[in-house]
Amino acid sequence: MKLLIRGGRVVDPASGKDAVRDIHISDGKIAEEFAKPDRVIDAKGLVVSPGFIDLSARLREPGYEYKATLESEMEAAVAGGVTSLACPPDTDPPLDEPGLVDMLRRRAKSIARARVYPIGALTVKLAGETLTEMGQLRDAGCVAFSQANTPIADTQVLWRALQYAATFGFPVWLRAEDAWLAKGGVSHDGEIATRLGLPGIPPFAETIALATLLELVRATGARVHVCRLSTASAVELMRRAKEEKLPVTCDVGIHHIHLCDRDLGYFDAHCRLEPPLRSQRDRDALARAAADGVIDCLCSDHTPVDDDGKHLPFAEAEAGATGLELLLPLALKWGQASKLSLAATLARITSEPARVLGTQAGRLSVGAPADIAIFDAGAPVRIAAESLRSQGKNTPFLGYELAGRVRCTVVDGAVVYEA
Amino acid sequence: MQRNPQLNANGELQHLLSIEGLPRDVLTQILDTAESFVGVTEREVKKVPLLRGKSVFNLFFEPSTRTRTTFEIAAKRLSADVINLNIAVSSQTKGESLLDTVANLSAMQADIFVVRHNSSGAPFLIARHVKPHEHVVNAGDGRHAHPTQGLLDLFTIRHYKKDFAGLTVAIVGDVLHSRVARSLIHGLTTLGAAEVRVIGPQTLLPAGVEALGVRVFHDMRAGLKDADVIVMLRLQNERMRGPLLPSAQEYFKHYGLTAEKLALARKDAIVMHPGPMNRGVEIDSAVADGPHSVILPQVTFGIAVRMAVMSIVAGN
To answer: In whole angstroms, what is the distance from residue B211 CA to residue A403 CA?
Structure first.
């Protein structure tokens, strides 16, 4: 199959190139110019970008099929222009055995939409006690190891897990959260939580855990990706760690650069997220750090939750928001507010996550995998339950009109979505 | 920000969910209406027909004796039919969701839901899902709000002090877990009390509490100085020992109200407590039963205030 994407504004964040040109695709790869394509896609007036790479998207399989299925969420991914996604291990059972990972990969392959990169559990059942068989999980296809949203309380276990992972060069992806300080909390510990009478999680639950983690990186040399920063002080710790050339990278959830605890309003359960939405100051610091590069990537932290999980009092509601289809519009909104070029904006959801993931995708140079998103940057998207393909309709942005509509998504040289 | 969910399009009280965000004139209207009901509760025939034919569902997801009883008395004095549901031991244990429970009761033609729930914000969730003619009255949600308690506290203060301007009110104890304190603070700041103080150890004061418009004191003696009103908060048994406090005895030493500490307040100071009291933990018996105490009148006023709230929401 030879595909020609003609006349689009081709933005390749990896090279910084941004120009109107054609893209040729052959045998699933980006190719040199050729004659006689099998199919021509007219991209005039549209942006042609590497497909988006989302470092955290829950597909809910196995175990939570009532919340979402691989079919529904993979449709949502390609509808959002996401061509590669990493899925955290907090399924039921967790991804702590090679068989589960193998099954997930097979299922994903048979559906043939986005590429799925499973993240294995770092400890058995995510319980923070026993190391998983990381080598075997790696062979089954795990690209990294993580605890999802369950912190390891025992620092000895964390140290040993990092030592072991470092021995074999396995990347470890962790959220920085002190299990004891966060216990029972559902919101940012501050004025808003006090007014609403919600149990808070203090900002130092993140910085204390992050300082510990960075110290263990120094000790072990483990390659650590810090997931979902939520505080301004954590940004500063990451800035210093990077200046020190520690082998660390980090990301922020797409909601946390737009929203803060004030958005909880009158107990809006859609704003019940992990980590919690924090103060305006934190939000602004995260948005700036994503712009200046201290934060490497934006991710959707896609978490489909059914209505039953959200139609509950705030503290009892299940945490998370659907995000795959909001990644592009919210990234564009942030990029515009931060006065970034389109290439710099898209880098946070293409070339940078590709680097963290260690994939060849995320760029448009000849020979790279032909994973492409074609979108209309100015076209309005109204966020509504009916228009979301994800089974999860849970988003604080319901009713918002954002800009950035995906017209066509190509994975491995095949058109997997058109609108 | 959404419109305050407890007011209708005309700015009238549709539900009573929280004192926060209620305009001064709405608060005054409730207090004035309650004033008119105090007479009713003292008559031989203690009934008015304002809610005749209406059904009040007492929906208590958390155990309560005092609040539930006073709501029941208030509804009966308004001639309403009262249905008491102790949900803690029925539907919830059978796994029925909060909204399903409410939908079922709504199908039984409720007019007013009086809701107590251990989760902050639960009455807001219910208010969003009831029919337009149904009203929700929050009887205490988690740590968030207990607006009728706050209103009866305001009523009591107004009864004894006549006016809020110039008043110094000291709230002592476990503010962190107290919905009573939050509701009273919002009421006092809205009605223009000169100074609202909170007194307690750091472990019992929530983060950023100053933003509610209060002055923070850790030294009880300094905090009580020249206070017109002292509100003692209840300390839950399970919090008397553990990471927040070492012991009930040590708490009493620092934050218990004794006659000696009370003497630092103004001579005509009143002492309040939302009940139930822990004598010897937060308050000395001599003070609780002494001449400054208005703890029992609070309970009596509570009925008039709840009558006022139910009659106002049902009338809007």
So the answer is: 36
CB contacts, 8 Å: B207 with chain A: 189-191, 193-194, 200, 202
How far apart CA A121 and CA A128 sit, in angstroms, is: 10
Rounded CA gap, B124 and B147, in Å? 13
Torsion sign (Cα): A153, A189, A215, A302: positive
| CA B54 to chain CA centroid, nearest Å | 24
* A119 membership: H or E segment, kind and range: strand A115-121
Residue B237 pLDDT = 87
User: Residue B298 — left, alpha, or beta (φ > 0 → left; ψ -120 to 50 → alpha)?
Assistant: alpha
Whether A194 has its CB under 8 Å from any CB of chain B: the answer is: yes
Q: Is the dihedral of CA A138, A141, A145, A149 positive or negative?
A: negative
Mean pLDDT, range A113-123, rounded to an integer: 97
| Number of Cβ within a 10 Å radius of residue A184 | 10
Distance CA B214, CA A218 (A): 45
> Average pLDDT for consecutive 10-residue bins of chain B (316 residues)?
82 96 96 94 86 95 90 96 80 73 89 96 95 96 97 98 97 97 98 98 97 98 98 92 93 97 98 95 97 96 97 92
Distance CA A179, CA A200 (A): 13
Chain A neighbors of B182, CB-CB under 8 A: 195, 197
Percent helix, percent strand, percent coil in chain A, to nearest 5: 35, 25, 40
pLDDT higher at A61 or A187 = A187
Q: How far apart are CA B27 and CA A21, in angstroms?
A: 67
Q: Which helix (H) or strand (E) holds B57?
A: strand B55-60
Cβ atoms within 10 A of the Cβ of A326, count?
28
Angstroms from A259 CA to nearest CA on chain B: 13
- Which residues share a beta bridge with B171? B198, B231
Residue B65 CB-density burial (10 A; 0-12 exposed, 13-18 middle, 19+ buried): exposed
For A159, residues 6+ apart whose C-beta sits below 8 A from its C-beta are A216, A219, A220
Flag if A202 and B207 touch (Cβ within 8 Å): yes
**If you search the block for the tokens 């809701």, which residue do you land on?**
B115
Question: What distances in angstroms separate CA A182 from CA A287, A402, B209, B286, one per listed residue?
Answer: 23, 33, 20, 42
Q: Which two tokens stand for residue B274?
A: 């939302």
| Separation CA A349–CA A257 (nearest Å) | 14
Examine the predicted complex and report whether its ipTM is higher than 0.85: yes
**Residue A17 belongs to what H/E stretch?**
strand A17-26
The answer to whether A3 and A410 have CB atoms below 8 angstroms apart is yes
For residue A79, give the nearest of A329, A391, A408, A333 by alpha carbon: A408
Cβ distance A311 to B125 less than 8 Å, yes or no, reads yes
- Are the C-beta atoms of residues A91 and A63 closer than 8 Å to each other? yes
